[in-house]
Design a protein that fits this description.
Residues 335-368 form the tRNA-specific 2-thiouridylase MnmA-like C-terminal domain. It is an enzyme of class 2 (transferase). It is found in: Cytoplasm. The record marks 126, 352 as: Interaction with tRNA. The chain is α/β, with parallel strands linked by helices and 372 residues long. The chain has three domains: 2-189, 3-Layer(aba) Sandwich (Rossmann fold); 214-271, Adenine nucleotide alpha hydrolases-like domains (SH3 type barrels, Roll), CATH 2.30.30.280; 278-371, Elongation Factor Tu (Ef-tu), domain 3 (Beta Barrel), CATH 2.40.30.10. It contains eight helices and 17 strands. The chain has a six-stranded antiparallel β-barrel with strand order 12-15-14-13-16-17. The model is unreliable at 40-46 and 321-331 (pLDDT under 50).
Length: 372
């Protein structure tokens, strides 16, 4: 099989590429240049698109004896990830750029280009498992739950998953580093990338302020009483406690949290920890990786990349009309999902990704549009 190995310059993608070679595939390595000006990023930046990273990936490819290329996807990354990130915050939502990058860049732009060039699949260093099931390939959690990345891959439909290889899904991270060292790969001890790759200093609020400017507005409690003023609602997210700059303490002396962000009135609403709890979630733009669950089905849900899994029940599904499998045919595609949680969770924001699981298997995902 001809495999295009996405090589970020880190240890995970390096070992994944090596394993693809060991499996007997015809492997070609590619590094995605995602920054418009990578030379402006400091060495050791949090992301995976620096010149340093490209050099690390090239050295690994040389050791593995595979061809290596750098593909410039900076424009696509700017439009589909960075611009989307800013636009979502502007309307009061909290996006996950890693989910969007996997959906639009690594398994859309990259995979489409790979297929057009005659490759059969794309290999990455994600920690997730593809297993054979009665209905075809199934996406499952990784063996190493501490590194599991099935959450950010849940936006991939079955046709894209069928062309995806995740060689590290059955391995723990510490063993990946040991293997890299044994293979003579100097990235074996390279630190993991973290946080948002295109915000190298970690200052998300400052990043957004430069692009959206100051826009003062009120901070109010759940009854509408003004408690303070903010310089931009985009600088807040649901569940936030620190940085509220409210001079008046709560009547009970307990901390306040951001409950909601209202972009039209430019208002940030705060309240108690109890008011922050969510017991039902509605998601839109659903993608299904497995047979769609019936209303009433027991599932588990996750709303953050490293958040806890919560038991839930599918209450209802909404539908839209889309292309069917036959020529010119149409089929009904579930586009929304509403779940009720067995136990409340806090800090759930619109724009986040809701992922449904059945055991370790990913059922599907949607973008959170409402909570209750």
């Amino acid at each position: 099989m001809r495999v295009l190995a996405a090589m970020s310059g880190g240890v995970d993608s390096a070992v994944a590429a090596a394993r693809a070679v060991d499996a007997g595939h015809e492997v070609v390595g590619v590094h995605l240049a995602l920054a418009r000006n990578p030379q402006t990023l400091r060495a050791g930046a949090r992301g995976c698109c620096t010149i340093e990273d490209a050099g690390d990936a090239r050295r690994v490819a040389d050791i593995l004896g595979i061809p290596f290329y750098v593909w410039d996807l900076a424009e696509r990354f700017q439009q589909d990830v960075i611009d989307d990130f800013v636009a979502e915050y502007k309307i009061g939502r909290t996006p996950n750029p890693c989910v969007r990058c996997n959906q639009k860049i690594k398994f859309a732009a990259l995979l489409d280009k790979a297929v057009a060039l005659g490759f059969d699949a794309v290999s990455t260093g994600h920690y997730a498992q593809m297993l054979d099931g009665p209905h075809g390939p199934e996406l499952h959690r990784a063996v190493d739950m501490g590194k599991d990345q099935s959450y950010v891959l849940a936006v991939l439909p079955p046709d894209r998953l069928a062309r995806s290889l995740f060689p590290l899904g059955d391995t723990r991270k510490e063993d990946v580093r040991i293997e890299a060292a044994e293979r003579g790969l100097r990235v074996a001890s390279k630190p993991d990338s973290h946080d948002i790759c295109f915000i190298s200093d970690g200052d998300t609020q400052g990043f957004l302020a430069k692009r959206l400017g100051e826009k003062p507005g009120p901070i109010v409690d759940s009854e509408g009483q003004q408690l303070g003023e903010h310089s931009g609602a985009y600088g807040f997210t649901v569940g936030q406690r620190r940085g509220l700059a409210i001079g008046t303490p709560a009547a009970d002396g307990r901390p306040r949290y951001v409950l909601s962000i209202e972009p039209v009135s430019n208002t940030v609403v705060v309240g108690s920890a109890e008011e922050l709890k969510v017991r039902a979630i509605t998601g839109a733009e659903a993608t299904w990786c497995a047979p769609v669950p019936e209303p009433g089905a027991a599932v588990s849900v996750q709303v953050r990349a490293h958040g806890r899994e919560v038991p839930a029940r599918v209450v209802s599904l909404g539908s839209s009309t889309g292309p069917g499998s036959g020529a010119g045919s149409l089929q009904t595609l579930p586009a929304t999902v509403h779940v009720e949680l067995d136990e409340p969770i806090s800090g759930v924001a619109t724009g986040q990704t809701l992922v449904l699981y059945r055991g370790t298997q990913v059922i599907g995902s949607s973008t959170i549009s409402a909570t209750a």
